[in-house]
Amino acid sequence: MQTSVDRDWTISPPRLRPVAVLGTGSGVPPRTLTNADLEGMVDTTDEWIVTRTGIRERRLVDGQATSDLAIAAAEQALLAAGVEADQVELILVATVTPDECCPPVACRVQAALGAHRAAGFDLSAACSGFMNALMTGHRLVGAGAFANCLVIGADTMSALTDYERRDMCVLFGDAAGATYLGEPRDGGEILDQLVGIDGRGAEMIMAPAGGSRRPATLETVARREHFLQMNGKEVFKFAVQKMPEIVETLLGRNGYSIDDLTLLVPHQANLRILEAGAKRLGLPLERVMINVDRYGNTASGSVPLALDEAVRTGRIRRGDLVCLASFGGGLSWAGSLIRW
Ligand code: UT7
User: How far apart are the first and last CA of the chain?
Assistant: First the structure.
């Protein structure tokens, strides 16, 4: 599959007000599913999972829904930003696993937070969902349509995972992450973003049934067709090519080199993808945020969860240059360059 960032929709800085990330947060469920647990469920080994993916454990919900994770992440982000819920003007939730197809998760978040003034909606771009929501929030706040925005990525991937398929069930986990965007306070600013899709790869990661094309029936459920299926090898190749392209494009067109980058926060799908991407970029692994070992692939939750951990553990500090990069189903990809 040939894809190129030449076809990205890159909205170069127009007359927008500066917008900064003022707070981050995350929401992870308490239950842990280890590789040892999976050894008892399917024909797999800890050794295979660690060697092929770098994943050692992942978190799964135990009765919670996507909105519960999103609400926890949003509460943390508001606390970190030092703002009250009733100040929030816009709530965006990226997810492929809403609690229900209606209402939007954003409405559940608004009600739970008491963010009564906020508008909001959900959007979906698979593993690049959060990054597309970040771009949307940035542009709407930058254009003055809203004073601030909560941008949340949240997924309960266990709802889409077939725990009888060893090639899928070892990969995914449940989590949410959030950012609060508003007027810069300390000089930090979102500098640039790019997003793209290539629908020729649409069937590389898909749940064949349960949507409008093939609504769920007894038969589709019996065939387990409402769970995700993936052409792992092809997606792997795409990710290893795309991740460095995103970083190089964003750095290059903003006059930076890889040496200027403090931290790369990539989508956490597979440690081997992160290692290969970092190698291509000439970026030491110490400057790549990695938590796939503890959470697996959490789709829309992945990048903001990793970002929040990087902020809380002091790996990102004021003034740092940070690049976010995602890739996944669609096929989709996105990147963001941020002066923290
Ligand atoms: O967030 C969306 C983006 N998604 C990704 O970025 C995922 C990208 N893809 C990947 O990360 C990798 O392709 C996987 C981790 C999904 C798979 O790794 P792989 O090295 O491509 O393995 P494979 O699919 O080629 O499978 C190799 C062998 C197969 O056995 P045979 O046919 O060689 O006998 C599989 O049946 O490994 C077998 N296998 C397993 N063995 C033990 C597959 N899953 C397992 C397992 N335990 N869990």
Answer: 35
Is the C-beta atom of 325 inside 6 A of ligand 1?
Answer: no
Q: Please state whether the peptide bond connecting residue 191 to the residue before it is cis, i.e. omega within 30 degrees of 0.
A: no
Question: Would you say the CB of residue 303 lies under 6 angstroms from ligand 1?
Answer: no
Phi first, then psi: what are they for 243, rounded to 5°?
A: -60, -50
Catalytic annotation, pick one of 169, 226, 297, 323: 297
> Does the beta carbon of 270 sit less than 6 angstroms from any atom of ligand 1?
yes
Q: How far apart are CA 119 and CA 14, in angstroms?
A: 24
- Per-residue model confidence as pLDDT tens digits over 17-73: 999 999 999 999 999 999 999 999 999 999 999 999 999 999 999 999 999 999 999
The CATH number assigned to the domain with range 20-187 reads: 3.40.47.10
Is 116 catalytic? The answer is: no
Q: Which CATH architecture has domain 190-339?
A: 3-Layer(aba) Sandwich (3.40)
Give the residue, out of 43, 52, 240, 327, with the most ligand 1 atoms within 8 A of its beta carbon, to mutate for a pocket test: 52
* Rg, the chain, Cα only: 19
Give the model confidence (pLDDT) of 119-138 as tens digits. Answer: 999 999 999 999 999 999 99
